[in-house]
Amino acid sequence: MVDFHQNGNIATLHNLRTRSHADMTYALETFAQTRKMSLILPCLYSELATDAMPNILAELSKVTYLHRIIIGLDRATEDEFRHAKQFFEGLNQNHVVIWNDSPRMKALETRLADLGLAPSEQGKGKNVWSSLGYLIGCQDSAVMAIHDCDILTYTNDMLARLVYPVANPTFPYQVAKGYYARIGNDKLNGRVTRLLVSPLLIALKRVIGDRDYIDYLRSFRYPLSGEFAMRTNILPDLRIPSDWGLEIGVLSEAWRNLAPKAVCQVEIADAYDHKHQELSPEDAAAGLNRMSVDICKAIFRKLAADGTVFTANVFRTLKATYYRSALDLLEAYYNDAQMNGLTIDRHAEERSIELFAENIMRAGQFFLENPHETPFIPTWNRVHAADPDFLRDMQDAVAADTAEFA
């Protein structure tokens, strides 16, 4: 995406192909002398067997500026945890594998539950939250980055470009969000961003009027990317959603806590491909079906917190406006794909739009019927206030797991 366009809301840092990876790496090594950087990898055990993970490991082993890598491991047995530790031994950096299903970690979760502070459900949100807690407890990193573990097109240049805006001490950015073109197998991908989020934000602006928050979200070229970097001083007050609204939730937290000039988006890849979720129209609790509802709820909750009043009539109008907006965008995406020699299955895309339209109503109905829902995991500041020893005990639990299951 070689251009230099700025949207006026948040800074966009482009890849103009004028600086070498070696030069950027040297700059990051210089920054790392006074600003330690850590990487968090939220990982399912099953991802170790994919084509993506060995390449990610090989690329990360070339990185010279990272202080620590934290791997949050989900859905692993004891033997699988042992295997995961061996798998990640190929990393050249200081690293730790957090076995989130270990008896010690489960005991800590029960301790939080007794305080009413435990995450309400398992998943990526809880994994990221636990890993952030471990990093906060280390008290030695100034910069943190997160990316997914299923990226088929991963290179360590992606990490360098992602972390640079918050690692550079002369830049004002506290949060950097990665963006890229979603292309793979000669197809235009990124269905949920293209067919749900973009037309939904257009529809919201038409139905409820101008809102700064809507303009802010529309400023991001790929708001659902799983790649972002932050300065660690903001982590203790970060509220992580426990559902599939994690990416929108993090952007909303940046909006709540920071000035727009402290947030940027950065181009990290020419093309990006990873594991694709199924639409799962027959199962409301799976795939993009579930994801679309959670994303809608995350956006509705944030707008309501800023004073927007939602009613059943508003959601009915929003559904109709969204549907028309999505079909209009589909025409543009189809033409864009054709011009670039890519394919789009228009029938499948329209089926997705129809499902997303219904899920806007479902999310709206759930929102109206559950006004007291609090899907956010408590901030680490709150956990520390309720249990001052918790972060230290988490560090001890991870160390004990690492030692016992060597």
From TrEMBL:
SUPFAM superfamilies: Nucleotide-diphospho-sugar transferases
Superkingdom field: Bacteria
Name used for this protein in its record: Glucosyl-3-phosphoglycerate synthase
Originating species: Yoonia tamlensis
